[in-house]
Amino acid sequence: MTSPGGPPSQRDDAPDLAPDRAAEERAADLAASGAVAADEPAEAARAVAANARVAEDKASDAAARSEGAAARDAAAAARHAGAAAEQAQDVAVHIDGSADPLLDEEVRAREAGVDEDNPFGRLGRPMSRRSPFRIGFSAALGAGMVFLLYRAIVSAQATLILIAISAFLAIGLNPTVSRLERMGLRRGVSVGLVFLGFVAFLTVVGYAIVPPVVTQITHFVQAIPQYLTDLQNNRSIRNLDDKYHFIEKVQKYATEQGARLGQSAASNVIGVAQALAGLFFNTLTVLILTLYFLSSFNNIKETAYRMVPRTRRARANLLGDEILSRVGGYVAGAFAIALIAGTTSLIFLSIVRVPYPLALALIVTITDVIPLVGATIGAVLVTAVAFFVSIPVGIATLIYFLIYQQVENYVIYPRVMKRSVDVNPAAAIVAVLLGGALLGIVGALLAVPVTAALQLIFREIVIPRQDSA
C-alpha cells in the first residue's frame, strides 16, 4: 500500500527499486569479504556488478521522475548501487588479477568499462592542472610554437610584404569602390572599373616615364665626371679644392665605380633578366592580390568581425570601420600629395632647365610617399643635382623646395588628410623609424596608418577601461 498523499510518480517508482536492492547488498557483501569462495567465481562477481549497474540506472530514472522524499531516496539508492557496482567490479578484477589486459581482450574491455555508450571505455580521471609534467609540457609546447611561428614569418617575409602591400592598396582603393556603389553600380562592376583604372594608370605611367627615366638616369651617371669638372671651374669651389682636393677624389671614385658598374652589368645580363622577371612577377602578384582583396573586401571584413565575441561585435564593427576609413583616406591622400609634389617639381625643374627633369620629378614623387622624411630626402637629392648645374640654379631649387614644403605641410596636407589620420607627431616619427628599420620603405609607409589605428584603439578602449577601474 502506498500513502494516500503520495504523488503518482512516487507510487509508481518506489516498487521498482526493491528488486535491485538485493543486487546492491550482494555486491557490498562481496566487496567487504575481500575474497571469493570457490563457488563464487569472477563471473558471479561481474554478474552482481551488472545487476548493480542496472539498479543504479533504474534508481537514477526514478529519481528523475520523483519528487520530494521519494526523489532523495531514489538518488541515494542510485549512489549506493553505483558504489556496489564499483566494489563488485573490483572484486572481479581481484579474482582475475593474473590476467593481463594487454593480452586478454575481455579483461581489457572489462577494466576499461566498455559498453554500448562507451565503445572505447569510460573516461579516466583528468590530469591535474598543477601537475609539474603538464605545466612543463605546456610551457615547452608554447615556446616551440613561438619559435616555429618566428621561423615561418622570417621565411615568408617577402610574401608577407607583398600581401601587406596588396592589402594596403585594397584599403586605399575601397573608398572609391564604395563611392561608385553609392552611385548605383554593383560591387563587381565598381571593383572592375577601379581596378582597370588603376592598371591603366600604371601602364600609362610605365610607358611615359620608364623609358625616358632609364635613358636620363644613364646619361646622368655618365655625366657625373663632367659635372665635377664644371664644379671645379667655379672660383670658390676651386679655392676649396686646392686645399682639400676633394673633387679629384670624388671624380676618381665616380669614374672607377661607373666603369665597374658597366662591366658588372655587361657580365651579369642573366642576373639583370632574373631581377626584371622577379619584379614583373611581384607586380603581377600584387595586382592579383589587390583584385582579390577588393572583390572580397566586405566578406573578409565580416569574417574578421565574426571572430569577435557577440557581446562586443557591434563596437568592434564601429571601431574597425573607422580604422579602415582612416587608413583608406590616408593611402589615397598620400598618393595624391605625392602626385602634386612630383607635378610641381617637374614644372619648376623644366623652367630652370635642370637636366633630366622627368627622372628627378619621379624621385620626388616616390620619396614624397614616405611619411615625414620622404619630402626632405627628395628635396635634398634634387637640390644637390641642381647645384651641379650652377650655384644660382641650386639656390633657386633650394628656395623652391623650402617654400613648397611649407605649402605642403600647412595647406595641401591638412586639406587632403583632414578626414583620414590624426597622429601625434612624436608617435609618428618613432613609428616611421621603427617601421623603416623592420620592413624598409614598406614599413615606413605602413607606420603612420598602423599608429593611427593603435591610437584610436588606445583612446576608445584602453583609456576608458583604465578610468573605470
Instruction: Classify the helix fraction into a percent range.
Output: over 70%
Work out the number of β strands. Answer: 0
Percent range for β-strand residues? under 5%
Low-confidence stretches: 1-20, 30-40
How would you describe the shape?
elongated
Q: How does the helix and strand content classify structurally?
A: mainly alpha
Mean pLDDT: 75
**Radius of gyration, taken over Cα atoms and rounded to an integer in Å:** 41 Å
Helix count, DSSP H or I runs of 4 or more residues:
16
Largest sheet: none
Q: In whole angstroms, how far apart are the ends?
A: 65 Å
Helix and strand sequence: HHHHHHHHHHHHHHHH
How is the quaternary structure best described? single chain
Account of the 3D structure:
There is one protein chain. By secondary structure, this protein is mainly α. Among the domains are: 8-112; 156-307, no CATH class. 83% of the residues lie in helices and 0% in strands. The protein is built from 16 helices and no strands. It has helices at residues 8-33, 42-65, 68-95, 105-112, 132-155, 157-182, 187-232, 235-244, 246-267, 269-295, 297-306, 313-351, 357-369, 374-389, 391-416, 425-468. It is elongated. Mean pLDDT is 75; it is low at 1-20 and 30-40.
List the helices and strands and how they pair.
Layout: H1 8-33, H2 42-65, H3 68-95, H4 105-112, H5 132-155, H6 157-182, H7 187-232, H8 235-244, H9 246-267, H10 269-295, H11 297-306, H12 313-351, H13 357-369, H14 374-389, H15 391-416, H16 425-468
Helix pairs in contact: 1-2, 1-3, 2-3, 6-7, 6-10, 6-12, 7-9, 7-10, 12-13, 12-15, 12-16, 13-14, 14-15
